[in-house]
Specification:
The complex is a heterodimer of chains A (125) and B (216). Chain A is 71% helix and 3% strand. Chain A is mostly helical. The longest helix of chain A is centred in the last third of the chain and has 20 residues. Chain B has 216 residues and is an alpha/beta fold. The chains are: A mainly alpha (125), B alpha/beta (216).
Amino acid sequence: MQKLFISGLLLAALSACTATRGPGQLYYWGDYEDLIYLSYKKPGNATPAEQIERLSKVIDRAQAEGKAVAPGVYAQLGMMYAMVGNQPAAEQMLMEEKARFPESAVFIDGMLERAKQMREERAAQ
Amino acid sequence: MNKFIVLMCLAATLLLSGCDTAPQQENSLIYTYAPRSILVIPPMNNSVEVNASYTFMSTLSRPLAEKGYYVFPVAVIDNFLKENGLPTPAEMNGIALDKIQQHIGADAVLYVSIDEWGQKFQLVSSVTIVRATLTMVDTATGTEIWKARVSGSDSNSNQQGGGIAGAILSAVVSQIANSLQDNTYELSRQATNRTVAADLPKGPYRLEAEAAMGAK
């Protein structure tokens, strides 16, 4: 009787949890959230070089599994490329974010515009 | 009999810690305003834990995006705001909505206030608590369109016998172990996932995916 009661409780706990889960994932996320957490938790834990490596892997794996890359991944990778001074790759990644998610257009266009201005100012000096 | 009590406690903690979903909110306005994109502003931290704001921020993108909204890249936005003279979340929470529309183009802004965060030492256990309030505002009109409470707790009551002294020792040990691990990240991940999955209406990308599935 006791056992029955306990398994009933456990079952209730489990089913209450599964009921809130959606049907399927829309995106492949890989390390994205963990990297953001790590970069704030202890700066130096996720250097731009390391993030570039791991975020590129997220994209590769998503493609290999035929899944959509989560929103923000390309933009985050673009920012990391900008931080290591690889401007062409940075711009390419930002364009990719915008192509996949047109909602990001105002923000991404602003970033690209500022990057262009910085390049021109540097060239003029 | 003792075993029974222990099992009961286990089952009770499972029930409590696993699924303490916040009560359903009135969500009608989010249907009316139907945002496609959400800007997450780095959370206001009303707790004493310095890492709370950014730890919580890093757990929001996934549940919101999986619900079907475009979520602006949180760390890129944070960096952008810092470069534009807003060094802390407190200042970022004061940006005018028209500036957000102009420079970021978000349909809705999600404001977060962290109400309670971290580990509490209790007599026989340590408890990790994460509590926050989410408020979504329509960028064009300033109307509050959605609100929810996120809460999660994770108690660590490793009773190992040895009476009260043993219990305190084990609480101290688990507290040290937990502070090394930082439970708050995993706990807030679970809590935000649960609340957003249960409370937030589906966004356009989720609805499109479901429509495509139905059409097949």
